[in-house]
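User: tokens in, sequence out, please.
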């Protein structure tokens, strides 16, 4: 738009200069034509009397020739430059026309006038028929103040300047309107993509201009392809999980039926394989879904479902799960099963180690989703926080588990651009802080 406005300004400036030059040339030609008429009139009324003196048979019709220093003058001089007759407007001055002879053609000169003003002079050398032959030619000259030219040009140039300025402003506004409304479909495309990313729609619906429709069709095709790839990835992950779990279950059962060091070693290795399979399958599924457009999961229903599930799992222990949700509901930009796995692992750990209470809250902080889980258990020294988040490293063998819970949560959170932090809980135990991306519509609100 700036480039278009600069081109418009340059074009109008050049056009204005050309128009002004053409008008100036026209005004000068018209001015010279008026002077020529007066020169011809002066020749027509000039004659010699009986004594051979040049006289005018009648006065010229222009009254300014009779007003002293009016700016309009005429003069008749001989071939030596001596003044024969002059207008009353010259008073006691003369026109010093020293140009070469102009016999047979009209010429134009510019020279200073009696009052210092610049004059435009038209003159011609003519031999009158009643002059004795051979006789030298006589110079007839008429002059006028050039300020009259400026007086005619000034209002035209001013009107031209205002006209070009108004035209330029109108064209600039037209360009701005054209750009704004011409690019409006692209803004609609951006809004439609934001709706898809926020999970509000699945396709770019609506009527689109023919210029934008190919782009919209390609984006819809890309979304469909992305969804198909995601479905295939989920199918492959599920198939791989079932394909591996069955042989591992068989190996585990066979090892449990036998006694001895070899059977114990096989059982331990099978357990390790199960943990790593669970770990990497979780990572693979999260990697396949972490950047999917349209993934949006409300957090409150997930926490509610997990609370009911874990209360049944830990029914034998008097652990109270407290949900603290303040403000408007928040949503996670990602898949529900990933959110369930992350919060489920953390809340399950809190229930295992809590003395009587586990507290979970989900808030929106600085454009991010922050899930905080506290327990009132024994806690964990700060020196062991790094080990607790390590892969497959269990700090307590008395509780069931794979030792990969925190590592899985950290990995899945990292795939979504989030992170997991451990800290001391204000109610006495361990605090886990899970930071995740908000759904697109909440991140910009």
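Assistant: Sequence out:
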């Amino acid at each position: 738009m700036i480039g278009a406005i600069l081109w418009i300004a340059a074009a109008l400036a050049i056009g204005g200069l050309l128009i002004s030059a053409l008008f100036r040339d026209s005004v000068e030609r018209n001015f010279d034509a008026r002077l020529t008429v007066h020169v011809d009139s002066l020749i027509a009324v000039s004659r010699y009397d009986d004594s051979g003196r040049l006289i005018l048979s009648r006065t010229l019709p222009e009254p300014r020739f009779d007003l002293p220093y009016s700016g309009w003058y005429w003069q008749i001089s001989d071939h030596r430059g001596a003044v024969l007759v002059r207008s009353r407007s010259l008073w006691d001055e003369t026109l010093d026309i020293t140009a070469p002879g102009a016999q047979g053609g009209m010429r134009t000169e510019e020279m200073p006038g009696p009052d210092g003003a610049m004059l435009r002079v038209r003159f011609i050398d003519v031999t009158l028929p009643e002059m004795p032959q051979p006789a030298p030619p006589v110079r007839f000259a008429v002059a006028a103040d050039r300020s009259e030219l400026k007086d005619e040009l000034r209002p035209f140039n001013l009107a031209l300047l205002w006209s070009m300025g108004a035209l330029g402003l109108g064209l600039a506004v037209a360009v701005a309107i054209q750009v704004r409304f011409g690019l409006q479909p692209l803004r609609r495309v951006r809004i439609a993509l934001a709706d898809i990313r926020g999970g509000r729609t699945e396709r770019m619906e609506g009527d689109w201009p023919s210029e934008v429709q190919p782009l919209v069709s390609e984006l819809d095709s890309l979304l469909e392809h992305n969804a198909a790839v995601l479905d295939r990835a989920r199918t492959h992950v599920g198939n791989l999980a079932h394909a591996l779990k069955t042989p591992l279950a068989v190996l585990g059962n066979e090892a449990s039926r036998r006694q001895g060091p070899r059977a114990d070693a096989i059982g331990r290795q099978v357990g390790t394989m199960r943990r790593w399979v669970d770990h990497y399958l979780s990572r693979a599924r999260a990697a396949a879904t972490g950047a999917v457009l349209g993934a949006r999961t409300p957090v409150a229903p997930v926490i509610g479902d997990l609370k009911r599930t874990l209360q049944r799992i830990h029914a034998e222990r008097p652990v109270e799960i407290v949900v603290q949700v303040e403000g408007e509901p928040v949503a996670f930009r990602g898949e529900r099963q990933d959110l369930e796995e992350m919060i489920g692992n953390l809340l399950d750990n809190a229930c295992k180690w809590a003395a009587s209470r586990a507290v979970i809250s989900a808030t929106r902080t600085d454009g991010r989703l922050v899930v905080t889980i506290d327990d009132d258990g024994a806690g964990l020294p700060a020196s062991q926080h790094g080990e607790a988040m390590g892969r497959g490293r269990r700090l307590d063998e008395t509780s069931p588990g794979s030792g990969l819970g925190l590592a899985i949560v950290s990995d899945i959170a990292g795939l979504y651009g989030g992170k997991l932090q451990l800290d001391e809980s204000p109610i006495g135990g361990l605090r886990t802080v899970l930071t995740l991306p908000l759904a697109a519509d909440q991140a910009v609100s």
